Amino acid sequence: MTSNMTGTMESQMRSEPPMIQMLTPEGDRIESGEYDGFAAELSDDDLRGFYRDMVLVRRVDAEGNALQRQGQLGLWAPLLGQEAAQIGMGRALRAQDFVFPTYREHGLAWCRGVAPETLLGMYRGQNHGGWDPQEHRFHTYTIVIGSQALHATGYAMGIGLDGDVGTGDRDRDAISVACFGDGATSQGDVSEALTFAGAFHAPVLFFCQNNQWAISEPTSVQTPVPLYTRGQGFGVPGLRVDGNDIIAMYAVARASADNVRSGAGPMLLEAFTYRMGAHTTADDPTKYRDAALDEEWKAKDPIVRLRRYLEKHTDTPADFFADVDTAADELAARIREACVSMETPPVEEIFDSVFVEPHPLIEEERAEYLAYLDSFAESEGAH
Amino acid sequence: MTSNMTGTMESQMRSEPPMIQMLTPEGDRIESGEYDGFAAELSDDDLRGFYRDMVLVRRVDAEGNALQRQGQLGLWAPLLGQEAAQIGMGRALRAQDFVFPTYREHGLAWCRGVAPETLLGMYRGQNHGGWDPQEHRFHTYTIVIGSQALHATGYAMGIGLDGDVGTGDRDRDAISVACFGDGATSQGDVSEALTFAGAFHAPVLFFCQNNQWAISEPTSVQTPVPLYTRGQGFGVPGLRVDGNDIIAMYAVARASADNVRSGAGPMLLEAFTYRMGAHTTADDPTKYRDAALDEEWKAKDPIVRLRRYLEKHTDTPADFFADVDTAADELAARIREACVSMETPPVEEIFDSVFVEPHPLIEEERAEYLAYLDSFAESEGAH
Amino acid sequence: MAALPLSKAITAGLRKAMDDDPKVLLIGEDIGKLGGVFRVTEGLQKDFGEQRVIDAPLAESGIVGTSIGMAVRGYKPVIEVQFDAFIFPAYDQIVTQLAKLTNRTHGAENMPIVIRVPYGGGIGSPEHHSESPETVFAHHAGLKIISPSNAHDAYWMIQEAIASPDPIMFFEPKRRYWLRGEVDESDPGLDPFSARVVREGSDVTLVTYGPLVPTGMDVAAAAAEEGTSVELIDLRGLNPIDFDTIEASVRKTGRLVVAHEAPVFLGLGSEIAARITERCFYHLEAPVLRVGGFHTPYPGSKLEHHYLPDLDRIIDGIDRALAY
Amino acid sequence: MAALPLSKAITAGLRKAMDDDPKVLLIGEDIGKLGGVFRVTEGLQKDFGEQRVIDAPLAESGIVGTSIGMAVRGYKPVIEVQFDAFIFPAYDQIVTQLAKLTNRTHGAENMPIVIRVPYGGGIGSPEHHSESPETVFAHHAGLKIISPSNAHDAYWMIQEAIASPDPIMFFEPKRRYWLRGEVDESDPGLDPFSARVVREGSDVTLVTYGPLVPTGMDVAAAAAEEGTSVELIDLRGLNPIDFDTIEASVRKTGRLVVAHEAPVFLGLGSEIAARITERCFYHLEAPVLRVGGFHTPYPGSKLEHHYLPDLDRIIDGIDRALAY
Ligand SMILES: Cc1ncc(C[n+]2csc(CCOP(=O)(O)OP(=O)(O)O)c2C)c(N)n1
Ligand SMILES: Cc1ncc(C[n+]2csc(CCOP(=O)(O)OP(=O)(O)O)c2C)c(N)n1
Ligand SMILES: [Mg+2]
Ligand SMILES: [Mg+2]
After folding, report:
1. Is there a domain that residue D189 lies in?
2. Does D27 lie in the same domain as D150?
3. Residue ranges of the Transketolase-like pyrimidine-binding domain (chains C, D) (predicted)?
4. CATH number, domain at D214?
5. What pLDDT digit, counting tens, does each position of A41-62 carry?
6. The pTM of the whole model exceeds 0.80
7. Would you call D295 a catalytic residue per the annotation?
8. Are the CB atoms for D77 and D70 separated by under 8 Å?
């Protein structure tokens, strides 16, 4: 009986799942049929722009780590290794799209115009967010795993209700992007998001960055089958892309976004990548993973790969790379300066904007607490 | 790009999904390749047994409706139309298996030896359960949609930990059965159950009775693709069976249960059936569904179908059917009698078995409330 | 408007809110053709279409989570949860997302979402259909909670909830759905967070809300016959709680009994008792007494009349307060 | 045993329980090789194997729900929830299933499951990592809740929790994980639901639990210097609460302050205030005062010292109580 019953499944599990790659780790282009059109649209300048983006966000990331070590941040969640996945996706989106990130989306934040300093502020404990999601069309970082997948889906349902999908007007048709990790796929909320997306044919692009780890757990703890297949039983087709290959990431993200935008329904993109650093600055990966694996993935570094391409196959001048590094240094200095000079917010902020309209208990507690603080000031004054 | 990207999905959605059927609505056997072996094991007596089971549980069900109308029950959830799905599954299981039901599993309860009166007691409001799950290897009815899928999965993980799977010993190897409806598939808990089952290769058989309705919502509200595909992206292969065909139900359930029992991992069985009655006695299906559809499914009635087969293709004597009807009448009388003579439980039960070990607040509340009740008795006595 | 059952007053309020604001939409299980299991949304899908009265997949977390996303897009979703205990699968989205997004975004994002929850017992239902979970939501900052006890309030408070830019949980006393009352369409009366003194009295204050307000009226009437003057307060707002109105009453009566169907242990009564004792320490002639559900699971319906505070138990509470 | 950090006392307790009973297993996120984000399960997978120390998929409802199923199969799962607020996705399984199955089956089914929850603030974490959600679980019948404040209790109480046939939520004061204390392996001392009088006093009773017990000790010491004699009680059991011990103390001191990190509004302090006021109405010289979190989301870590009750705020509460 097994043949009929588990046939598809077994073949799916046994064979290597198809992964779309357009740029080899050695920096050479490979053909990819239907996606080549989108890659062809990319000028060498565009690619240099991608390179610059990746280097800069990697530097932001390094600075985040350093500032945490110096006690300037409470925590930092590094994106190291996921630059291509995020910049590729970020640059494939249009202004009217709306991204719902996790806590590690510094590359996407970059593309959506959220200043790195703002991200640092949140990790410093100044606040829990600090940017206007509507201004950037980039929602707040979401820490509770998987929650944002539903928000993205609801937003996409709203796009549908507004009729802003499938009109053919590229400045009007919009999508939402639901970002989540490999670990997050196990959360009920992510599955419910697939359910609603499928049921309402919502223009949402599920963007799973499979960085192989959920803190210490390898993806095999979450699933025995490739994650790009997760949506199939919900009516959400999936693709796996080499997440360390920015050309493939961009091209497939563009193709997928356009497909969703056209009204074809939701899709799931699995970016197959690697968390090269620790989960967060509080984590110690040596406890649970092999240095050999880290080395293996180091050879697939997304930035090195694009640099090789630029060096081998374009006439990018050598000082371009030096300039980018200088820009990175400047950026690093700027955000370090911004970080250390952040002032602790006034205590009143605790009581602010819990609600839009006033709440008497909060007002009462605010008044009492401020009076209490004042009593110290007074008694100190009295001394 | 759509071809590559959504090809499988589209074909899956467009073509009629494969459904295993072995007995036509007209009562004729059709071949089914790999499952015929299990059907062949069924003697005519076995089939008559199935017929009897189905008629009796249908009568239990009718009695449930009637007793509710008479005010004897607070509510009843009819299984009308799902007899073959449940008896087929129930008879395919072995003593050591463990079933985790919803609130509509009267046919499975029957197979697991839970007295119909006990089910009535719960719907009467005597209690919330009333049987020992271990005695019947049949868990309590679960009302919160989807919860029990996780319990079944955890139980199956326990089977795995005990090594009671894949040993080849048919009296030892066990499975658990997670029952749920089409609507339930949308709940995060059901997806998480698929996740854990896949990740732990747990011997759980997911048994989805797709009766086309979740109260007033047709299955299309839950999913754009057939439900038997739901598990694929979790590593849980699926099959769709004609749930009104008891031969196919039994054969495929046997095959699937044996497969899971052998250590092949979890599976999902979708019984394609129809809720011929109301959702519960509190429901009014005329508000939301076409009488024509009801008629269409009436022609596929599972009991009529098997009766036709027995009449056409076996030498079942006419008085067999009459005897079954008499047995049904007797059963109905018995449970009616049992129901109306149920005594209201003593008030102390409210405070009983909240915990195994005592809880002082509950003891205090018990004492206070009983004293309060006594005060009435006293004051009444005083008059 | 003629006298309406409480449930139909909500229907009328929903209809009015949908007429007034095209961004208002309803989402929930079985709220379309069926009109909801309590028929509160009856007729609305027919009139407003499937895009504004949305039958959702059977997943409460999904309903709340997608509603949050729709709110980000500018919509004002009104969610129907089918029964009290079925809100728990959505607990996480409610308390970690819905309740906190305004704060997380420093007010840049509003969450004008209403969650309608039919609650309470007394209708002979099986498990999970009779609970009163308001307390656990009230404890979390970021949610406002209101509960009407009559048709007029139901009609207005649902509209005020929908108009609010803040997330509001709207607890509907399901066993009073059929209770008829006049609705004055011209005047909402009190704002939804103010408690109402339903009946003035001088001996003892009785605070309750939702399904027990009619019971409280019977209690006050019965007590009056025995010569006890009960001041009955209908809380209406469960978070914030209008402590000023309670305090004013207790300063007058010196005694307070709080009654609710929710368990006494850590029920709203505990907060009211604690805070009113603080505010009225020198005015209280007796400790604040509470009458409510037991610290047990809600029992089978054959026993629920023991669990639910009724006229006798509340009068017993009042007698105990007066005995001090 | 030498002095152990509180976290390692839990590790030792877990190890002992696993040695004693082969049905005990641990399940949670990152508890295997990593040993949990707080290293509480460090070394246990190595010693007991992957079948008894189970790294689970990232799904809290799944972890609790499958643990229930394993309990039905005869196992005794001990769940680690990674941080306080990540328990909410499991809320439904905890309150509608775990808490109720014993009752639903009239005791035929036991639920010997322990849920370990590191809780509370003060460690400079981002959102969701510093909350104190004990109240919302305490309100539901069917769960027992305990919280140790020192290494000795941590060692014993985790074992007692595991040995219990009832579901126990075990709240671990995460900012005290590194607090060292002697563990007496020969004598557990009080049962886990009894409160402990940590320091006797006569002017005012201070009740607290978990992370604030060390703070309470500082408070008592500081107050003593100012001439105020504080009786400090460590609650230990959060449900049931040992009201007898508190009552006895308050009958002596006449004043009670309750402190916890959880929000004051509907926190455990509200129930303690209400019940002790009932029990000690004629003994109280002042209303029961509460010091705790605000009715706001837990703030960013730069502001958390304002949110968390500290020595000064608790002393202020004591002063206010004494001022009556
Ligand atoms: C509901 C919930 N449970 C647990 C956590 C703790 N936690 C934070 S990140 C993380 C791992 C997430 O892994 P993945 O989804 O793969 O994303 P990645 O961190 O690899 O980007 C966990 C368990 C959380 N934030 N939310
Ligand atoms: C969490 C939860 N939400 C809502 C309900 C109310 N409810 C009871 S049965 C039901 C429909 C279930 O449909 P399905 O899963 O298809 O099972 P069926 O009733 O058809 O057997 C609903 C919505 C519930 N019991 N639990
Ligand atoms: Mg990951
Ligand atoms: Mg159904």
Report:
1. no
2. yes
3. 4-179
4. 3.40.50.920
5. 999 999 999 999 999 999 999 9
6. yes
7. no
8. yes
